[in-house]
Amino acid sequence: MLNLALFGPPGAGKGTQSKLLAEKFNLTYISTGDILRKEMGEKSPLGLQAKSIIEKGGLVSDDIMVQIIERTIGKALNSNGILFDGFPRTVVQANILEELLNKMSNPLTCMLSLEVPREELMHRMLERAKIEGRSDDTPEAIKFRLIEYENKTTPVASFYQEIGKYFPVNGVGTVAEVFERLTNAVEHANRFEP
Ligand code: ADP
Known about the structure:
Bound molecules: adenosine-5'-diphosphate
């Protein structure tokens, strides 16, 4: 299996690029943000629990996220590979994901990190807010999402760096340019997989 995780701050373009990557490499797409929004829309117990945290721009508890990921990985095991968008977002989640995938003898191939400067992120998210109307795209929630990212998510990069699976990619440019950089990184990572 080719198992990829797309990493980067909110607004980096993970959603756009992961859809393209999933199509090109024929991967099962797992977006924890989409799953949570669906649960919220259905007003499921899990969705109701997550709603207020998400709307503030905070991170949902690792406990809830692990339940979601275990359930979805199980269903994706017979595919060509999995593309994780928005997961893992904490070091706890990263440890659990490594363990789960290794136990299934289908380790994560690489973690692709989209690098975009902060001013550009703010600008992109405020533009997106006008189009999509997501309830967590208010200026306050965006600011808090960036703070949560700095505090809880950036350490995930070091986690993957230490195990040699971290591939940074410049996220500034056209969608096609960034996509080409990502596919090059995937091919590179795949060649060196043990
Ligand atoms: P973004 O566009 O900000 O990267 P996502 O659509 O991936 O956002 O996720 C939206 C929100 O869902 C996050 O701000 C967070 O509250 C919650 N969320 C998504 N994935 C995770 C995760 N792995 N751990 C904790 N919370 C998550």
